[in-house]
Design brief:
Elements lengths: L1 H48 L7 H17 L7 E8 L2 E3 L13 E2 L6 H7 L4 E6 L5 E9 L4 E8 H12 L6 H37 L1 E7 L4 E4 L1 H6 L11 H7 L5 H14 L3 E8 L5 E12 L5 E10 L1 H45 L3 H25 L6 E3 H15 L7 E7 L3 E3 H21 L7 E9 L4 E8 L16 H12 L4 E4 L4 E8 L4
Parallel strand pairs: 13-15
Antiparallel strand pairs: 1-2, 1-6, 2-3, 4-5, 5-6, 7-8, 7-11, 9-10, 10-11, 12-14, 15-16, 16-18, 17-18
Helix pairs in contact: 1-2, 1-4, 1-5, 4-5, 9-10, 10-11, 10-12, 11-12, 12-13
């Protein structure tokens, strides 16, 4: 009889123990999923909008916010805590203070410690009973946060879970009656303190979300019941309990013009097992329109069917208004710059026309030629401003159309001299900074002009080629070549007295390059310089 009572007591205690373990796993899993969803939402938001706001970029901005939240909301029972882990080489590193108020030492990735963090950093989600970072057996739930490349763990020491059972297990021999009578009390004594601690952690998490202006939600796809945080009520302009708690009630709060987009994003997550992400507007009960950034993910059951969606919402109205204001200011700036380029182009064309008229009226051939050279140089500068005037980007210019237009101008302006000459272009479409576009255009113009004057005496035919190619490491190679008569044997670029080649040398130096001359087949002038990233 005593044996039977002891067996019954043992079985009862074991069943209660397993039930408590299962219940704690579920709570820890919900905590980790909520924490991960919040961190992922903040990280993705920072990646989109806070890249320039922190010296260490978007990731630094998110980690700074996470450090503050971790200080106030990392503990949820006597031994329960959240753990953030990062992989650095072959080590698991813990960036924040943990259970004993200190930052744990890094742990080798392949060791038997910090196993829940190890699983999270390997990209896995789940629960386990394993050793934590200080070698203590813990019940843990874990999940990865891929945007930050970190692992998130919610854990509680197994000693805390087992303590009530060890105490009550010593009384098991008093019989099945005591076990049955004490079963309800045992469940309450074991579960209630832990649940209260977990509820306290949820409250701390809600406080952190409120301070960050971030709300979280969970939608049971099977029952069509939505639960969301108090902060989500605040974002939607609702009082607690006013929300209809169904997907239809949610979608009715979305701006009519954005509902189709939101439905499409939700259905895609449900059907294609991808994350949910959307920017949309809502209409509050007071008719105020707010901009929302939402992220989430779908949880599937063992049969592969969608069970629920979890995620976060963030009110980005002020940021959107600031972006619209900046966009309007930039649009005004673009209009102003277009007008400036247009007026500069017109003024340069007037100067070019005046130089042309003066050259035609000049009887001294050398003076007339100098005036025409000046006219050509002014025309090249005017071409730049004309191209920028018709461009969407006022600070950059595409090399292809720009250089081809300069070559065409040179061909037309030297129609008599270039009648037997073929022009060939091999120009990559490189986006040029305006500070580089001006000297490049002038160099090409000077070298084509030089070839037309000297490379093809007695009206002989030939080829002038212009190339600009993008090389490794962001380098650009510019070349103008001809198959004409070639340079004199005593030619020395460093001692050349002509204004055109002096300008080419000076402009190449401004680009950060040096002119190289190849005489092996006609003449080739080449310059290699570092391109500027737009």
């Amino acid at each position: 009889m005593v044996v039977t009572a002891a067996v019954v007591a043992g079985i009862g205690t074991l069943m209660l123990y397993l039930a408590v373990i299962s219940e704690q796993k579920a709570w820890l899993t919900r905590l980790v999923q909520s924490q991960t969803a919040m961190i992922e939402a903040v990280a993705r938001f920072d990646a989109m909008y806070s890249q320039q706001d922190h010296p260490q970029g978007a990731r630094g901005a998110t980690m700074s916010q996470l450090a503050v939240a971790h200080e106030t909301a990392s503990r949820f029972s006597e031994t329960g805590e959240f753990v953030i882990a990062v992989r650095e080489g072959d080590m698991i590193v813990f960036p924040f203070k943990q259970h004993h108020g200190v930052i744990p030492d890094p742990i080798p990735f392949a060791s038997g410690l910090a196993r829940p963090a190890y699983h999270a950093l390997m990209g896995h989600s789940g629960t386990s009973i394993e050793l934590d970072y200080h070698g203590v057996l813990v019940l843990a739930a874990y999940a990865p946060a891929p945007t930050l490349d970190i692992g998130i763990v919610a854990k509680i020491d197994m000693t805390e879970v087992r303590a009530p059972f060890i105490k009550w297990g010593t009384l098991g021999g008093f019989g099945a009656i005591l076990v049955i009578a004490g079963g309800g009390l045992l469940t309450r004594r074991v579960s209630t303190p832990l649940i209260k601690d977990l509820q306290s952690a949820v409250a701390s998490l809600n406080d952190a979300q409120r301070l960050a202006g971030l709300g979280n939600w969970e939608w049971n796809v099977q029952t069509d019941v939505i639960r969301w945080s108090d902060e989500t009520d605040q974002i939607f302009g609702l009082k607690p309990g006013e929300f209809g708690a169904t997907y239809e009630a949610f979608i009715n709060a979305v701006h009519p013009d954005d509902r189709a987009m939101v439905n499409k994003a939700v259905n895609r997550s449900l059907k294609e097992r991808v994350g949910y992400s959307a920017e949309y507007r809502i209409i509050r009960p007071d008719a105020a329109v707010r901009a929302i950034y939402a992220r989430g993910e779908t949880v599937f059951n063992d049969d592969g069917k969608p069970e629920r969606m979890i995620g976060t919402v963030l009110d980005i109205t002020e940021r959107k208004l600031a972006e619209e204001k900046i966009a309007a200011m930039l649009a005004e700036k673009e209009v102003l710059l277009q007008e400036i380029h247009h007026r500069v182009k017109n003024n340069l064309q007037v100067v070019s026309s005046m130089l042309s008229l003066q050259a035609n009226a000049e009887k001294n051939s050398r003076v007339a030629e100098a005036l025409r050279e000046s006219e050509r140089r002014v025309r090249v500068m005017a071409r730049i401003h004309e191209t920028l005037y018709g461009s969407y980007d006022m600070a950059h210019i595409g090399s292809g159309g720009y250089l081809c237009s300069i070559i065409m101008d040179m061909r037309e302006s030297h129609i008599g001299a270039s009648g037997n000459i073929v022009f060939r272009e091999d120009v990559d479409d490189i986006v040029l900074d305006i500070d580089q576009a001006v000297p490049i255009g002038q160099i090409v113009s000077e070298l084509i002009s030089n070839a037309l004057k000297h490379a093809f005496p007695d009206d002989r035919g030939g080829v002038i080629g212009v190339s600009m190619k993008l090389r490794d490491g962001g380098m650009i190679e510019l070349a103008v070549a001809d198959d004409g008569a070639g340079l004199p044997k005593d030619f020395d670029l460093s001692r050349c007295g002509t204004l055109g080649l002096q300008l080419v040398t000076a402009l190449a130096g401004k680009l950060g390059g040096k002119v190289e001359v190849d005489r092996s087949n006609g003449t080739r002038f080449g310059i290699v310089f570092k391109g500027k990233q737009p």
